[in-house]
User: Fold these one by one.
Assistant:
Number 1:
Amino acid sequence: MLQQRGRKTIGHRAGIAVNGDPPRLEPPSCLSKPERRLFAEIVAVAPAQQFVASDAPLLASYVQACLLARSAVRRAGKDARALSTWEKASRVQAMLATRLRLSPHSRVDPKVIGRHQPQQRLSAYEQMRLDDAGAE
C-alpha cells in the first residue's frame, strides 16, 4: 500500500470518508461467518450515521437473534421446543430492532404516518415469480 505524500488531513486522521460520512461499523471478531455477513449487510443498508461503535454489541445480539429465529422456525415442524426458541428469539429480535431504530415503528414519526401513500399491490406476474422462488 502506498503512503500518502504530504500532510494528512484531519478527516484522514479521524477515519472519515472522502464524502464526509463516518466509517461504517465493522462486525466484531467474535461473530461467526454468517453472523458477520448479516451484520455487514444491515450496516450497509442503513444510513452511515445510524450506528456508532457503542452499538456494535447490541447489533451483534440482534444479528444472533435473527439467525436463531430463522434456524428455529425451520426446525419447528419436527421439534416442539424449537417453536418456543423461535418465539423467544423473535421477541428479542423485535425489542432490539426497536432499540437500534431498525423497525418501521421506530423510524417513522407518528404525526406523518398518515401522509405516506399506500404501497401498490403486487401484480399477478410478481406474485407468481415470488411463489416460484419460494418453491425452490
Number 2:
Amino acid sequence: MRTLHWMALAALLGIGVQGRALATEDTGQDRAEAAGKELVGSAAPRMILKTIDGDTIDLGDLYGKKAVYLKFWATWCVPCRQQMPHFEHTYETAGPDLAVIAVNAGFNDSLEEIRKYRRALGIKMPIVMDDGRLGAAFNLRVTPQHIVIGRDGRIQYVGHLADARLDAALVTARQAGFAAAPASAPAMTEHPAGNLGDLLPARSVTTIDGKPFPFRTPTTPRPTVLVFISPWCESYLATTRPAISASCRRTREQVNQLAQDPRVRWIGIASGLWASEEDLRKYRDDYKVGIPLTLDESGALFRAFGVADVPTVLIADARGKLVRRMVPDDADSLLKAIGTL
C-alpha cells in the first residue's frame, strides 16, 4: 500500500490525503464499502466459530434472536488499536439484543500476540482467530473491517471507520420486524494444497501485466518458486512488526538477486489485504522487483496454499511437486535452498 500509515490515520479521521489524487478505493472506508457492495442485503453465512479460549459461537443460532457485530482486526494494525475503545464500549453496552465478536484476521498474527494484545488493552469480548473462511465470506479487504448483521440474519453494513454510520447501523440492526433471511450455505474454502509432496494445481494466474502464469510447465520442466508477499510489509510493519518487516526486505533482496536464473520460474503472489493492483505495481517499480507478480485480491491462493504469513516461500521441483515451505523465520536461507535445486 502506498502510504498505509498516513492513509489509515486519514481514513480514521475522515479526511483526504493532501497533495495527490485518490483512487476510488484508496481510503479504508472506500475499500470496505466496495468489498461490501455485493454483501449488503444478502443472507449472512451460518458458520460455527471457535474463540481463542475454546468456546463455540454458532452464528446461525444467533440470527433471528440478536443482531451481530463482527469486527476484523489485527494486532499490528494502527487504526484497529485506535478504534478499540469504541469497539470495547460497544461490547460492554451491547445488551441482550447484540452479539459483539472480535475477529482477528489471522494474517501475520499469532495466538501469543493476540493474547498479549488482549491483556494490554483489557479486551473482554470474545475473540476468534480467522482461518480464512470468515475473511472469504465477508470479502475482507482492510483492517479494521466492520460487519453488521441484522436480527433478520441479513448483512446490513460493511465499513472501516468507527463513525456515525457504524453507530447508526448498530442501532438499525437491532430492530425487529424484518422477514428472516433464508438460510445461507457456509462459505466455501479451498482445500489447502501447500503440504510437502503435493502437486501444484493445474491452473494459471494472471500477472499484473496481463500475462498468464501456469503453475505447472510440462513442456519445459523447471522448478517453480511461489513467493507470498504484501506490498506494504516492509514499510508499514517496520514499526509494528519490525522483525517481519526485515524478513520481507531480506526475502525481496534475495529474490531480486536470484530472479535472473533461467533454471527457475518465479511468481510473486501478493495478498489483497490493503492492496490493489496499483499498489502492487508501485511496489514493483519502487523496489525494482524482477519477477512476475499477481494480486490475490480475494485471498483464494493464500487459503489454497495454507499461507497466513508473509513472507512465505513455496518451492516446487521440476515435476511441480512441493519440496519446501519457508516461513518468515527461515526465509534467510532462500539463497541456499535455491542453490540445491
Number 3:
Amino acid sequence: MSRPPDPERLGEFDIIARFFAPLATDPVSLGLTDDAALLHAESRDDLIVTTDTVIESVHFLERDPPETVGHKALAVNLSDLAAKGAEPLGYLLALSLPDQGKQSSTAWLEGLASGLKQLQEQAGTALIGGDTTATPGPLTLTITAIGRLPKGQAVLRSRAKAGDRLYISGTIGDAALGLRLLQDHDLAARWGLSEAEAEHLVDRYRRPQPRTHLAPILRHHAHGAIDVSDGLAGDLDKLCIASGLRARVQAGDVPLSVAAAKACEAEPGLLPMLLTGGDDYEILAAIPADRARGFAIDAERAGLPVTEIGSLEPAPPAGSTFVDRSGAALNLPVRSFSHFV
C-alpha cells in the first residue's frame, strides 16, 4: 500500500530553517546559512571535541517520543564533555531521516527540536551547524559537541593514579531496567514497582542527565574520569587500561535508586546486568585520597551527590574486579554493551 502524500512534506532547507535554525542561538553558527561555523579560538583555553551517533532500534526504540530522542542524542555527547571537565561550547547535528515514515512528519520534527532545545538551554549551549539528509535506512542522529576548558586542565582517563579512590555520580542500572520495562511491561508488577518508580526507570533510559555541572569540580579534584555509557564494569576497565592500573570495587557500595533496589530484591540475579548494562551516563572519577572529602562536598553543593565505590591499585593485570561483602569476586562474563559482539 503506497504512503499518502504529506501536504507538509518539507525539503532539506525547509527543515533546517523551520526546526533547527531557531536552535542556532550562538552567532558562531552564522544562523545556519553557511556550510560551516565560525569559531573564535582563545589561547587560554583548550577545546574538547566528541561525537556520538544514536540509531533507532539500537540506542532508542521506534515508539520513543521524539522529544526524548532529541534529548538523548545531545545528552550522550554532553556527558563526554563533562567527563573531560569541559563546558559545552556548541554542537553540530547530522540528521538522516527515513524517506518514508513518521520521522519525516512536521509533528515528529517539532518534537525532536523541542527535546534538543530544552536540553541545550539547560546546558548553556547551542546548535552551530550540521547536515540533514534522507536515508532508506533507520533514523540516525550524529552529534559532534565542542567544549572548552582552561588550558592543560583536561581530565583524561589515562591520568588516574594508584591509590586514587573511585567515585560514581548518581545511581547505576536504572536505564538498563527502564529498557527492560519498555520491552516487557509485566516486569513492573513482578518487581513490585509503583507506577512512579517504573516511570523513573523508563525516563532514565530515555532522558539521561549529563552531569555538566560536575565538570569544574572534576578539573579541581580528579586525576582521571570517564562517563559510564556502555556499563560501569566495562567503562572502568577502559579507565584502568588507559592508566595501566587495576581497580577493586565493592559491588554493594554501587549506588542504586529505590526502584532499582526493589527490582534487585525481587530478582537478585539482576545485579550483574545493572553493573554492565550501560546507558547510565554517570561520571566515574579517580580522586586522590587527600582530595576525596573535598570532592564529595563540592559535588553535594552542586546538587550531584557522588559515592565512593572502590580504589585503584598498581597493575598487572589492568582491569577491574567487583567483589561482594565477603570479598568474593563477582562473575561478570559480559562486561559492557558492545556493538560488535
